[in-house]
Amino acid sequence: MKPTARMLTIGALAKAAGVSAPTIRYYEEVGLLPKATRSAAGQRLYDNTDVDRLTFIRRSRDFGFSVDQVQQLVDLSISADRDCFEVRDMAAAHLDEVRARLKELRALERNLTGFVKQCASVCAGGSGRDCVVFKDMSKPGTDIRR
């Protein structure tokens, strides 16, 4: 940290980066953020580079990257020796995972839509134990990802 840099408390850093103070402490603990310098009174102090890094981490998490993947991205972001293609490849692999999850979610949506329609037309208003949704979900061999 530069001695002339404006110092931020953990609360100010949290507000600036849009995260909570416990999140900041966790990211320090797992190594995503470097350990904060401390004031004479022991208060954590941060600067604007910490705001930038924490914002990057938050945005990466918003995109669904795991903590381990974010650590790899952080490492890449500070490396002059590693290639930008590594970032692209990580993002492409993550995109493939997201697309696979979307496919599963669309199948789940179709199945739930079918359950709701079937319930509305067959048993709505009747006894809960006679609901077709329970009967369909209890059948062996049914898979929601079809």
Mean pLDDT: 88
- SS summary, helix count: 6
Q: Give the proportion of residues in helices.
A: 55-70%
**What's the main sheet like?**
2 strands, antiparallel
Number of strands: 2
- Describe the global form: elongated
Distance between the termini: 55 Å
Protein structure class: mainly alpha
Question: Which residues sit in consecutive blocks of at least 5 with pLDDT less than 50?
Answer: none
CATH class of one domain: Mainly Alpha
The ordered H/E elements are HHEEHHHH
Q: What share of residues are in beta strands?
A: under 5%
Description:
- The structure is a single chain.
- By secondary structure, the protein is an all-alpha fold.
- It has a domain at 1-65: Multidrug-efflux Transporter Regulator, Chain: A, Domain 2 (Orthogonal Bundle), CATH 1.10.1660.10.
- The chain contains six helices and two strands, in the order ααββαααα.
- It has helices at residues 10-17, 21-30, 48-62, 67-77, 84-122, 132-138; strands spanning 37-38, 44-45.
- Helix 1 (10-17) crosses helix 3.
